[in-house]
Amino acid sequence: MKLLHSGKVRDIYSDRGDIVLVASDRLSVFDVILPTPVPDKGKILTSLSLWWFDKVADLVPHHVLSSTDVPEEFAGRAVRCRRLEMLPVECVARGYLTGGGLTEYRETGTVSGIALPPGLEDGSRFPEPIFTPSSKAPKGQHDEAITFADVERLVGAETAARIRDLTLEVYRMGAAITEKNGILLADTKLEFGRDPATGEIVLGDEVLTPDSSRFWPADQWEPGRPQYSFDKQYAREWALSTGWDKTEPGPEVPPEVVAAVRARYAEVYERITGSAWE
Fold first, then answer.
1. Residue 199 CB burial class (10 angstroms; 0-12, 13-18, ≥19)
2. Is residue 274 left, alpha or beta, with left meaning phi > 0 and alpha meaning psi from -120 to 50?
3. Cα torsion for 47, 53, 54, 58, to the nearest 10°?
4. CA dihedral 149, 152, 153, 155 (to 10 degrees)
5. Confidence bin at 205 (pLDDT 50/70/90)
6. DSSP code string of 169-211
7. Distance separating alpha carbons of residues 144 and 126, to the nearest angstrom
8. Quick check: 78 and 22 in contact, CB under 8 A?
9. Does the pLDDT at position 149 exceed 70?
10. d(Cα 170, Cα 188) in Å, to the nearest integer?
11. Contact 250, 27 (CB under 8 A)
12. DSSP letters spanning 67-128
């Protein structure tokens, strides 16, 4: 295999005409890789993504070819995938107001150019999920919120509408499944590409994982305050509590924080899939 790219969490290899995506145990917050890995993180992300790819297959074609035809050294954390021409947009669906969306709303009353009702709080639920895309920043830089008009300029009106609709469909399906298991899907990020041979829009990267989504326990949801989360929001908050300025290098993560992140990732895997994490 030939290493093509090492991202914040995933390493991308070329092998026999396919792509092999390998999820590492690296922890990235605010687009900076922290120096301390989280044991099993890559395997949890891979297993949960595979579970979701199976669920969304009737909604959108995806890039997964095999989770077993991979080098033995990467077993459990690697997926053999179709080659895609990735679109230059992070596709985000939000069902609740929080995070960067909350910051923008407090400043402008909008999120990604979408006007929202006054008086919303941290954790408020939207009447309908909204599409709030962002740019794909180079490694070491931060993604930036963009408007739907920006997406149209980047990929064309037809493709923009298609990936917006697919993002919202995947979000709605995912939110319905997680809510049955006592978890609210606050928001999620998806990535799409084109099959170079057919031009078909294909779902790639990862799907509805604690690295790409915010998951909240439904029985603890209370708008007006930060929510308990089963995702890397805990790591973000810890990193900010150290006084870190969101630039490289990131702070070393103490063992108790590593253990807490791992426990939350494992718990959300178990609650969503109904399977124990070994």
1. exposed
2. left
3. 170
4. 150
5. very high
6. HHHHHHHHHHHHTTEEEEEEEEEEEE-TTT--EEEES--S-TT
7. 22
8. yes
9. yes
10. 9
11. no
12. SSSS-GGGTTTEEEE---EE-SEEEEEEEE--HHHHHHHHHHSEETTEE--TT--TTPEEEE
| Sequence-ordered alpha helix ranges (H) in the chain | 41-56, 99-108, 148-155, 157-180, 233-241, 255-273
Full-model pTM: 0.93
Closest CA to 34 of 234, 258, 253, 242: 253
Would strands 78-81 and 110-111 be described as parallel, antiparallel, or unpaired? unpaired
Cβ contact 25:235 at 8 Å: no
If 0-12 CB within 10 Å is exposed, 13-18 middle and 19+ buried, where does residue 158 land? exposed
8 Å CB contact between 78 and 64: no
Instruction: Read off the DSSP letter of residue 71.
Output: -
Residues 87, 101: Cα–Cα separation, whole Å: 22
Specify the amino acid at residue 226. Answer: P
Residue for token pair 């870190």: 244
Give, as one character, the DSSP assignment of residue 154.
H
| pLDDT, tens only, 34-72 | 999 999 999 999 999 999 999 999 999 999 999 999 999
Bridge partners (DSSP) listed for residue 33? 28
